[in-house]
Amino acid sequence: MPRTALRVRRWAAIAVLGGLLAGCGTTGDEGGPDAEPAAGAKARTSTEVRPIEAATRITDAKGVTVSPEKPPQRIVCLVALCDDILVELGMVPTATNSAVLAHPEFLGKEKAAKVPVVPGGFLSPEVEAILSHRPDLVIGLEDTHGKLAPALKGATTFWPVQPGSWEDSVGYLRDLAALTGRTAQGEKAEKTFRTRLAKAEEVRSDKTSLIIFGSDENFGVATPEADVAAGLFPKISHYPWKSRGVDGSYSLEEILARDVDVLFVETLSFGAPDGKLSGKLAKNPLWSRIPAVKNGKVIEVDSEVWAKGRGTRSLGVVLDEATAALR
Asked: How many CB atoms lie within 10 A of CB 327?
């Protein structure tokens, strides 16, 4: 995979090996991303939600303390997780650089078009443009936007987030619900997601699934250790894919040997769209021999939701689409 694609996918699904559970959103669920319950086993994810209390200061699961001068209302999102959480809380970003809001399960194209876009893109959002929106809070990805902290200091509050699991995402949801005072909305969103996940676990498929991503024939495999959405898959299907580090992935020969039943494809675009990843991979003669390809079970998914969203609303969409395909 070209280095640019690989770097962007790292930011889209950052690895946090051995990541901590989100302190604010965890209720002692057992089993990590590699744990695979037997098909038909009872759900292991708790649907219980602890009350969220409004707060003027929080310390997230990564040890970052956030203390805005007032409950934030004008929030600029530099990472899609922020947009996801705000929609869950019944809020709209003051500005964003994510396209996830256009998805019908979020704001939809018409309403999303009214949200100002921060120029500079995901990798290099412009500080002056961010501050022109007079934000109470700016939320970005720590390893990508942390460099902006000095320029934003004194003008607004910057919160660097780094989700590595769905538990982290729930924790960030709870933290922002506390800071904004939208505790009831936060509890409802967490309950909805936990219920979705528990139901998906109850009907866990014995089929082998796989998520691949890329912009050309040099694709990557999304693994539970490095991808929030992929972290759900061992709970709902057979998902025998482990991280091989930043520069390692799987070949089509290896995928063919695993007898993949359902294949989810995330096409990442750099500039103007130039076709789906599945169409490019079809040029390889091995592609047609994969069971999922032969049986018409290759699903091109929305990468804005599957790869970049990482919040409870995005992950809910992933669960719904995945379980439907895995039946």
From this structure: 8
Residues 6+ apart with CB under 8 A from 324: none
Paired with 265 in beta bridges are 212, 300
Question: pLDDT in tens for each of the 327 residues of the chain?
Answer: 443 344 444 444 333 222 322 333 333 343 444 445 544 345 589 999 999 999 999 999 999 999 999 999 999 999 999 999 999 999 999 999 999 999 999 999 999 999 999 999 999 999 999 999 999 999 999 999 999 999 999 999 999 999 999 999 999 999 999 999 999 999 999 999 999 999 999 999 999 999 999 988 789 999 999 999 999 999 999 999 999 887 678 999 999 999 999 999 999 976 666 789 999 999 999 999 999 999 999 999 999 999 999 999 999 999 999 999 999
Look up residue 64 and give its two tokens.
Answer: 């970052």
Q: How far apart are CA 55 and CA 22, in angstroms?
A: 17
Return d(Cα 148, Cα 128) in angstroms, integer: 11
Residue 284 gets which letter from DSSP? S
Q: Is the pTM of this model over 0.70?
A: yes
Compute the Cα dihedral for 117, 308, 310, 24 and give only its sign. Answer: negative
Smallest CA-to-CA distance from 129 within 144, 142, 116 is with: 116
Beta bridge partners of 299: 264
